[in-house]
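This follows on from our talk about sequence and fold. Can you supply me with one protein entry, sequence and fold together? Could you add the entry underneath, on a fresh line?
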Amino acid sequence: MSMHINVNHTTRLEHQAAARERVGRGNGPPAPSNRPERADSVSLGSGPAAAPTYAPAVHGGNSDTLRFETLRQLVASLLGKQGVDTKIASGESVIDLAAITPAEAETLVGADGYFGVEQTAERIFQFAVGVAGGDPARLDAIKAGIDRGFAEAKEALGDWLPEISYATYDAVLAKLDEWAAGTTAVV
């Protein structure tokens, strides 16, 4: 465990607006002032320190590269903390999420990619039906589990998911409906 210090610099108006938001009074006008007064706040804590972040100009990359790198590091870190290897076997090759490039990521989430809608939906479908013992009578429980997992993923990522996630969710539900109707087989 390590000690960390967080320093935040705001103007008085920013601080007052933030305080109103915290108590649910975010609609009122800012306090009148001829000039913003500066205020610094410092908070001390123990535990893992947050990784530093840098503005794109300091980091040296454009915003898309910075977002990709940040997401890649987040995924690799989360998997590592859970004891999950960042390497995934995909047919004859291995995908290393900790070292993936933007071009490789684009290919992987493409229509025919390992993380594309169809292949990901198929893996989720096969897993969900397998856990349910292949019993179509458990369709509602399977869908509830899919809904819960999707909601948890959305919450973990700040109540936002990329469009591919929603398309995959829809594809999984369609596969489950086809399976319940007897038109899709479980492998």
